[in-house]
Small monomeric GTPase (Chiloscyllium punctatum), 172 residues
Amino acid sequence: MGGREQFHGLGSMYCRGAAAVILTYDVTSRQSLRELEERFLTLTDTAQPDCIFAVVGNKSDLTDDCVGTDETQGPVPASPAPRASKQVFKEDAINLYKQLLKYKMLDEKDFPVAEKMCFETSAKTGYNVDLLFETIFELVIAGIVKKPVKSPDTVELEQSTDSKSRTSPCCT
Ligand SMILES: Nc1nc2c(ncn2[C@@H]2O[C@H](COP(=O)(O)OP(=O)(O)OP(=O)(O)O)[C@@H](O)[C@H]2O)c(=O)[nH]1
């Protein structure tokens, strides 16, 4: 989700009808996580009710502990970029994810566990980027497969009764 000042007004548009939302902060900036909490939770109001959420800490290549293994890509080399201290930890992201589900009044047990949906990535080195998108795609596709297919010929009886009652005052 875009964090820049000039895009603030467009926030709810990003999420309208979304099947998945990726909330991104910068692991070297506590403020970036705070902004997600303060401004972005409400923007998810326009997403689909069964929307999948991921909380992503980007720029992990800038921190001292970024050298590790990527589940899909193997060892990740250290970046030559200057080191920065890590200001946001995985537990902070997990708390934000839980807070988001609470805000949306969603039951944690109907959604993937927070640990699965919080990632640390580097757009620069590609660290965990594939894993993030593969995880989201799998969950979104599984959700689509689970949804009952509605035939276009189906007439919803409840809906037609409702629309009849709505039109009746003009037919007296
Ligand atoms: N080292 C590093 N730099 C990154 C990474 N992702 C983005 N950047 C750099 O961060 C700056 C901002 O990136 P943008 O893509 O404009 O993202 P933004 O949402 O505007 O991010 P911020 O300005 O950091 O709030 C650019 O200079 C990018 O090159 C990353 O994973 N690692």
About this structure: The pocket of guanosine-5'-triphosphate is lined by residues 3-4, 26, 58-59, 61-62, 81, 122-124 (CB under 6 Å).
